[in-house]
Each structure stands twice: as structure tokens, then as C-alpha cells.
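Researcher: Here's the sequence for the chain we discussed earlier.
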Amino acid sequence: MTTQLERSNVSENSAHLTLIDGWLQGIKHCRSPHFDHREPDASQHISLLVIHNISLPAGQFGLPYITDLFLGRLNLDAHPSFKDLAQVRVSAHCLIRRDGEIIQYVSFNDRAWHAGISCFNGKEKCNDYSIGIELEGTDDIPYTEQQYQQLSLLTNVLRVNYPKITDNIVGHCDIAPGRKTDPGEAFDWELYRQLIETRAC
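Model: Thanks. This is the structure I predict for it:
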């Protein structure tokens, strides 16, 4: 169970998140080679936030393999399931670990490779105009309080800096139905939206 002290520390460490050139300040940066530049002034057209989940191996947390995958250095011999990831080149803008740590891999102003074949409100290629946030987790294991706290803080920072996002916040399942299921039934959308609005006040 998260203690009041733990909640305070999460809030204190992230309450003053700021962006410079699309990078969050005061957090860990692990720059992924798996990105490309958006069109000129594309940061003015970012209009969607996509929530994902990831764990490597599936259902195991606190290991370095997610970062290794996003950086293109995953040791395929480290676990039998990793064989399926050979030649996979993916990234997200940020990962929020179970303890609330935020790691950024790609500038928000650039295009991370997180959405794949996708469509939102009739507009395809969501990578072009979206920001992708990964939560360390699975579809059916409850996310942690620290993750909800950090995700809500980060969401409001992004909404201020990329105002066209407004309420365009979806799961990967919503833009790739039938292909993706994350963040899954374990994700508490009601709690998340309550925290967003509380922190926006």
C-alpha cells in the first residue's frame, strides 16, 4: 500500500515538470534511435494522447528490458519470449514505471513509433499527431497509485504545452481495435480523469 509519504514524494518530485524543446526536465532521459522528425511546426498540430502498457517479460516488472527494447539493444537470448521481438523497432515518448519513475525516450516534438497501424476520428497514422505514454503493466494487473499520480501530472503538462490535445486521450485499444487491447480492463479511466481535473484546478 502506498503511504502518505510516498504520495508526497511522488508529487513533490513531479509537481514542477517543465518542458524544454519537447523534453521534460528533472527526469531520466534515454534517447531512443527509434523516432523521426515531425513535419515543420508539427508540434502545433499534436492533438492526441495515447495510453499504452508494456512489460518485459510479460507480467514481470522492474527489469531493464523495456528500455533496452526502446533503445534497440534488447538481448534476444535473455528470455524465450524475446525471440518474437527480433527486428522490432519501437519506442514511446515516455514510460511510467510501477514506482512512478518517468523515463523519456523521444522528444514530444518528434514522432515516436508507438501506435502502429491506427486511426482516430477517421484520421490514420496516429504517430504523426500523437504522444505515446507507456505504463509498466498488463491489461489485467491493477496499476499503482504512483502511476496514476504521475500520469495525471504529465497529462496536464502536455495539455498546457500542446493545447490541441484537450480531451483527446485514448487507449491504444481505441485507435487499433481488434489489434491492441492496452491499457486494458485494469486501467481505471474514471480515477485517471478525476485526477486530471483535480490537478488542473
